[in-house]
Design brief:
This protein has helices at about 1-35, 35-60, 75-105, 110-135, 140-170, 175-200, 210-220, 255-270, 280-285, and strands at about 225-235, 240-250, 275-280. The protein is mostly helical and about 290 residues long. A three-stranded mixed beta sheet has the order 1-2-3. Strand 1 (about 225-235) and strand 2 form a beta hairpin.
Length: about 290
């Protein structure tokens, strides 16, 4: 996991450097050309800078060792960063939609040629950053959050290019706020699933790839196991899953063998690598009160 974080750190650092450099150019371009689409994209790029910086900090924090008060360490810092990144995107969307509504009713002159130049440069930067992060997006939810920021910004650059061409060819200045709305919708679509997934991890929901009924049946099939209760499964951080359960044994198989079989089953079939199982005799299980 440490090597994975190191690779994530490198790609996030490169993306942060490229995004930070272009941010100033896009803000200046948006102000000089009077383009809301460019300013909307710049606002999102500003959240990209914050998101990438937050993601880098979260990776560093997640690498710190566990303590007596944080026995799982700081793994959840990456999930919290992903959640906050998604919520920040919602505020950016609200600001873009408000300004688009205001401008659509009161059109302003846009310098389309300058807008087109800045948008093309922005597209190049975003393509570079998306290429860097694409190979890592299947791992950490934290990196996936950063990737969504960059991808939606890339789509925003494409929208700004389309609006600049429309204004340049037809003079229809309302294309600028309308494209801004499209950018906002794309940002919102990507962020909703991101926030929901991060919230599920923070609420310790069952991981999406695990069917609890199938899991329970598989555990019941372990030789020597008579019953399973108080079964809980959750995600510690992306790709790191935990389980706790009480297993009632019938005495026909040694307890060490039962534990070995359960751990092997969970690791191989369900990718659960942190397992806590309490073994009980039938009479003890019958006397035990119900647990959450």
């Amino acid at each position: 996991m440490a090597n994975e974080r190191q690779r994530d750190r490198r790609v996030l650092g490169a993306a942060l450097a490229a995004t930070s450099v272009f941010l100033f150019a896009e803000v200046a371009g948006g102000l000089l050309t009077n383009s809301l689409a460019l300013l909307a994209d710049a606002a999102h790029m500003l959240t990209d800078v914050g998101a990438l910086g937050m993601s880098l900090f979260a990776i560093w924090l997640a690498g710190r060792p566990a303590t007596d008060t944080k026995t799982y360490g700081y793994y959840r810092a990456e999930i919290l960063a992903a959640f906050l990144n998604g919520v920040i995107l919602w505020f950016a969307v609200a600001g873009i939609l408000y300004e688009a509504y205001r401008r659509y009713g009161n059109p302003v002159q846009v310098h389309s040629a300058g807008m087109l130049l800045v948008a093309v440069l922005g597209l190049a930067v975003n393509l570079f950053c998306a290429f860097l992060l694409a190979g890592r997006r299947g791992g950490s939810l934290n990196v996936r959050a950063a990737y969504w920021h960059v991808l939606s910004d890339l789509l925003g650059s494409l929208g700004a290019i389309a609006a600049a061409v429309l204004i340049l060819v037809t003079g229809w200045v309302q294309a600028d706020p309308l494209v801004s709305v499209l950018i906002a919708a794309l940002i919102l679509a990507g962020s909703i699933s991101l926030v929901r997934e991060a919230a599920d991890v923070l609420m310790e929901a069952v991981p999406a790839h695990i069917d609890m009924e199938e899991l329970r049946k598989a555990l019941m099939g372990v030789p020597g196991t008579a019953d399973i209760h108080d079964l809980h499964v959750w995600t510690v951080t992306t790709g790191h899953y935990a389980l706790s359960a009480h297993a009632v044994v019938d005495g026909t198989v040694s307890e060490d063998r039962i534990l070995d079989s359960i751990q092997h089953l969970l690791a191989e079939r369900f990718s659960i690598d942190h397992v806590t199982v309490q073994l009980e005799r039938r009479n003890r299980a019958a006397q035990e009160p119900a647990h959450f």
